[in-house]
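Anyone up for a design puzzle?
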């Protein structure tokens, strides 16, 4: 299972507004946070948050595991291995790395954007 924090769960609504996509599923926003983390070339710094009040998600929800052409599990598995220069040997390990990158992506977004910031300008600058 991939866990989130209460902060991440609460950030979904403002992120949706910033992206002008307010009616997407939560996995869409979590995947966006994951992609933000994997898009940066800066070294990975783990960001720790309390996960007791967050929610749990399955690989199926985050990566689309088992959903045919919408299954990005192998892509994320490979991307994390390249990004972190590691070998992931189990789905449990993949889940932990996905969780870490979601936390990192959330941290990057929540500390870089103000409520009136244009997320698209931010993405153009940093990516």
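Challenge accepted. My sequence:
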């Amino acid at each position: 299972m991939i866990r989130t924090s209460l902060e991440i769960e609460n950030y979904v609504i403002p992120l949706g507004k910033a992206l002008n996509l307010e009616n997407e599923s939560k996995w869409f926003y979590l995947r966006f946070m994951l992609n933000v983390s994997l898009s940066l070339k800066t070294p990975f710094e783990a960001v720790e948050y309390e996960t007791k009040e967050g929610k749990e998600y399955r690989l199926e929800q985050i990566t689309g595991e088992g959903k045919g052409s919408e299954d990005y599990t192998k892509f994320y598995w490979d991307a994390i291995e390249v990004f972190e220069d590691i070998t992931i040997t189990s789905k449990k390990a993949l889940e932990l790395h996905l969780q870490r990158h979601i936390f990192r992506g959330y941290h990057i977004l929540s500390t870089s954007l103000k409520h009136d910031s244009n997320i698209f300008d931010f993405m153009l600058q940093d990516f």
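A detail worth pointing out: The chain has six helices and two strands.
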